[in-house]
Each structure stands twice: as structure tokens, then as C-alpha cells.
Amino acid sequence: MADEKKADDSGEGKASSGKNPLLVILVLVNTIAVGAIGFFQFQNHKKLNALPTVVDVLNQQMANEAGGHAPAGAAGGEHAAPAEEEGILYQLDPFTANLARGEGPSRFIRLTVVLKFNKDAKKEEVDAKKPQISDAIISMLNSKKPEDLLKSEGKAFLKEEIKNSINTFMVDGQVIDIFYVAFQIN
């Protein structure tokens, strides 16, 4: 009786130690799929890192303006576009601000802007006025409702408001244009 029990136990051990071929195939396919996804993610990461960033473009444009070179794509001839007014570009840190309560839940905005000052502006003055500039922009954003900023007219009006507000306390230079680098409402 004890011998029969040993024989039964040894038979069960052999059956449970066998590998299911379907399970092996699924594990192999899963490993290959994860490797392929990783490869494509790596390729996409390399491609995105090769693209110039906003900072690179701004630095190149400022270097071109400082060196007196024509902007990229500008060519002489009768069909050349009129030259833009020269000035300095100044990128501000990103803003996150609460918007005025509109219909629905509270919303906030994430905004990154680049200010273009006329050629009379001095970087030292802009650096010194940076807290006032930030305060003016945040105060304006806090007074806006999300519905107003989702329309293109609202975005253009906000640019004009920011420009006029900053120009009230600038001494040497004036803001001549504002560029939205990032504009997100949540």
C-alpha cells in the first residue's frame, strides 16, 4: 500500500513538471513585443531630441539679429517680404494661474510666452521689471474666463492687454509683439 502511494506521488510530479507549449509561446511573443515597443520608443526619443527646441530657435534668431545677418528664408529681390522691426526676444518662465470662475468647475491655465521688445529695450531693464511683468500677466489671467480664452479672438485680445499693461511701466523699451509658446487650459 505504501508502495502504491509512492508510485502515485511520482506520477503526479512528472505530469505537473511538464511545460505547456502554449504558455512558452505566449511568453516568447510577449518578450518580443516588449522588445519591439522599447526599440520604437527609443527611435522616437532620438528623433524628438534631434528637433530644435524653442530656446535653440530663439538663440539662433538673436544671434542672427546681433550679427546683422538676414533672417533665415529672407532673400533679396522684388518679392522679398518687408523686414520686421528689430528687437530683443525675452522668454518668460511658464505661468500657471487660476482662471475666473465661469460655467462649470474651476479651471486653470498654463502659459509660456516670449516677449519681443523694440530695439531701444535693454535686457537689464527687462530683467529688473520681470516681477512686475509676471504680476501683470498673472493678474490678467486670473480675471479671464475659460470661454473667453478658448476663442482665437480672446487669445489675440489677451496679447494686446498684456502688451499694453507691460508698456505702462517700461521706460526705455516697449513690447511690440507677444508669442505664445505654450497655451493650455485645464
Order of helices and strands: HHHEEEHHHHE
Largest sheet: 4 strands, antiparallel
- Overall 3D shape: elongated
CATH class of the domain at 86-185: Alpha Beta
Give the count of helical stretches. 7
Question: Uncertain runs with pLDDT below 50, 5 residues or more?
Answer: 69-83
Instruction: Give the helix proportion (percent range).
Output: 40-55%
Beta content comes to 15-25%
Total E-strand runs: 4
Supply Rg: 31 Å
Head-to-tail CA distance between termini: 75 Å
CATH superfamily of the domain at 86-185, by name, is Band 7 domain
Structural class computed from helices and strand pairing: alpha+beta
Short synopsis of the structure:
Helices cover 53% and strands 17% of the residues. By secondary structure, the protein is an alpha+beta fold.
Please, could you describe this protein's structure?
With 186 residues, this protein is an alpha+beta fold. The chain has a domain at 86-185: Band 7 domain (Tetrahydropterin Synthase, Chain A). It contains 7 helices and 4 strands, in the order H-H-H-E-E-E-H-H-H-H-E. Strands 1, 2, 3 and 4 form a 4-stranded antiparallel β-sheet that branches. Helix 5 packs antiparallel against helix 7. The longest helix has 30 residues, at 21-50. The protein is elongated and about 85 Å long.
